[in-house]
Specification:
Blueprint lengths: L7 H12 L10 H9 L3 E5 L5 E6 L1 H9 L16 H11 L2 E2 L9 H14 L4 E8 L2 E7 L14 E4 L2 E4 L3 H12 L1
Antiparallel strand pairs: 1-2, 3-7, 4-5, 5-6, 6-7
């Protein structure tokens, strides 16, 4: 099921309706209920003054909650760049790629230059450092141009010791994405 981008208030209202029912909502949640109704997740009855008289989850809303219980927003929170074919090519090129031993790198700048060169070989402009996740230094291939677009699963480079690898699976890439961008 496709994820829908929800605000914090909409997520709170959806959780409340799912677990506690309409009676637990406050009178200030009318705007969030209207928004959720437009998305097809909730069905509501309104008072003449604009307040909400009653609201329930639709079948689609119940399915949405079942498939996405933590209410994560869509994976494509930022513009992904390139096509699946390029993504697959990068997987093959970078999987298990050796880099010089750590002692040979005098600075982080030299490692960054090496990763940038790998990215350029594979159609990207540079590697953006995101941080550390599960013991790996995480980098994301990027473009300089805002018009370049990447469609496909998220692409992250994991650096540990003397190895560079790409995220092993869609699940691992999604966890990295949610860790840094959620």
């Amino acid at each position: 099921m496709e994820r829908i981008r929800l605000s914090k208030r909409e997520k709170r209202v959806l959780r409340t309706l799912s677990h506690q029912g309409f009676d637990a909502l406050s009178e200030f949640d009318a705007a969030a209920v209207r928004s959720l109704e437009r998305a097809g997740l909730v069905r509501a009855a309104y008072l003449e003054g604009g307040g909400v008289e009653d609201a329930v989850l639709t079948g689609y809303g119940k399915e949405f909650m079942r498939d996405n219980p933590k209410l994560y927003n869509p994976v494509m929170r930022f513009v992904m760049r390139s096509f699946d074919a390029v993504n697959a090519y990068i997987s093959i090129k970078l999987f298990g790629h050796k880099i010089p031993k750590k002692e040979e790198f005098m600075t982080k700048e030299e490692l960054q230059a090496h990763l940038d060169a790998l990215c350029k070989q594979n159609g990207f402009d540079y590697a953006k450092y995101l941080g550390t996740y599960n013991g790996d230094e995480i980098y994301q291939p990027e473009f300089n141009e805002e018009g370049d677009v990447y469609y496909g699963r998220p692409c992250f480079l994991h650096v540990r010791g003397d190895k560079i690898r790409r995220s092993r699976s869609y699940e691992e890439a999604s966890k990295v994405l949610n860790y840094f961008y959620d």
